[in-house]
Amino acid sequence: MGFDARRASSETVVIHVGEALDFRNADAFKSTFQEHVENGIRQFVLDFSDTEVLDSTGLGAIFSLYREISSDDGKVAFADVSEPVQVVVHLTRTYKVFRQFPSVEAAQEAFSG
Question: What is the pLDDT of residues 93-105, one digit of tens each?
Fold first, then answer.
């Protein structure tokens, strides 16, 4: 299961997470972002608009991405966070690490500004 990832600018990639980011597809998620990191991308917007499931393995994959790019001033933002993901974000206090935006466009504007 692949992830829809599109280059939004020369520095930013938007990854549409889809229905779930969990133990079943966390490796595919890592492969998707790894490919972009190898191509020099350091800013990622994760679109959670359709996501119903985010488990600890999926969250671990996101933190793995963040650790890899943070030393290069990399950024990861959450956009259009669905209600189920919002619950996980609050329970795990992930909001203290990743900025959240109401839309992908708002996240992209914050990165470019």
Answer: 999 999 999 999 9
